[in-house]
Write a structure and sequence with these properties.
Elements (H helix, E strand, L loop, with lengths): L8 E4 L5 E4 L26 H8 L4 H46 L1 H14 L1
Antiparallel strand pairs: 1-2
Helix pairs in contact: 1-2, 2-3
Length: 121
Amino acid sequence: MESLPAPARVVQLPDGTYVYADASQLPAQQTAPQVVHQHIHQAAPDRTVQRIALGSGMGAGAVAAGVYFGPLLVGVLTAIAANLAILAFLAAVMAWGVVAVVRSIGGSSGGAAAKRLGRRG
């Protein structure tokens, strides 16, 4: 039985035409080493709360509500804390003002009353 010749390859010439070429006529191809590009990405955002909520059977609507109302709740609590701090400051200033007025107007009995109030507070 006669052996078959090596299959011919189709090669494009520089002028753009295609021709059949035997493997014996082609120049030996040299392969360059393969370059591996490694991409380093940042860590994904932490979605632990959402995963726990979805894993416990809550729906996506509840998770979306938590994502929306979570920062809103932090803002509201911050505003309440700021209001309470302002009120506490005003109460301290008003108490100081009352003590100063009682000392200046009350004479000796006012001074004694202011000392008594100062020791208790």
